UniProtKB/TrEMBL annotation:
<keyword id="KW-0378">Hydrolase</keyword>
<dbReference type="InterPro" id="IPR023365">
    <property type="entry name" value="Sortase_dom-sf"/>
</dbReference>
<feature type="active site" description="Acyl-thioester intermediate">
    <location>
        <position position="202"/>
    </location>
</feature>
<dbReference type="Pfam" id="PF04203">
    <property type="entry name" value="Sortase"/>
</dbReference>
<dbReference type="InterPro" id="IPR042000">
    <property type="entry name" value="Sortase_D_2"/>
</dbReference>
<dbReference type="GO" id="GO:0016787">
    <property type="term" value="F:hydrolase activity"/>
</dbReference>
<dbReference type="InterPro" id="IPR005754">
    <property type="entry name" value="Sortase"/>
</dbReference>
<protein>
    <submittedName>
        <fullName>Sortase</fullName>
    </submittedName>
</protein>
<feature type="active site" description="Proton donor/acceptor">
    <location>
        <position position="140"/>
    </location>
</feature>
Amino acid sequence: MRKFSYLIILAGILVMLFPKANEWYNDWQQQKLLDEAEQSYSNTAPAAVDPDLKSKYAEVTQLLSEESSLDEQPPSDTPVKAEPQVVLGGNVIALIEIDKINLLLPVLEGATKANMKHAATHMKETTPIGQIGNAAIAAHRARTTGRLFNRLNEVAVGDIITVKTSEQAYNYEVYKISIVEPTDVSVLNGNNKDKILTLITCDPLVNPTHRLIVQAKLP
């Protein structure tokens, strides 16, 4: 009987520790990517713009919604299932840095569920970073303060977003911040003149229904 009680106590402890252990693992993966990126950036050829960008954007915003509860603590009486191992599917193509919110993240090529668990992701269907057009970067807005795009709502017009690739550091200046419907693909429009950067995450932080969009451009 005593042994059974110990097993129940142990199970309860494991249930409580699982969310924190999962967060530690994601942070470890993120730091590993940062270390690799700082040592050597991956060179990737410019991606062609996907003609069906609307459907791709819908997939990305859906992934952001699904990921919004990633680091949420489950009720104590809810069975915890181990997540299947995920494999990162993109190369580190850049680092994104926003000093104002103390953000430094690797940017992976391809906005997939696996990639968004540990990093910011460049939608490969959009313009390559630093070129004329609109380069979109999406990331999960984790509920843990400071993780991924958690503090993106603190960014203001005039702030600088630095994106460093293997070739150059680009200093984009924020010119527009908006909250839009998840289906509003117009945020990815370009004007054939400016070099635009669009950051995408969920809003509000809890039970998100919209998307927080931060747009910046090179001088």
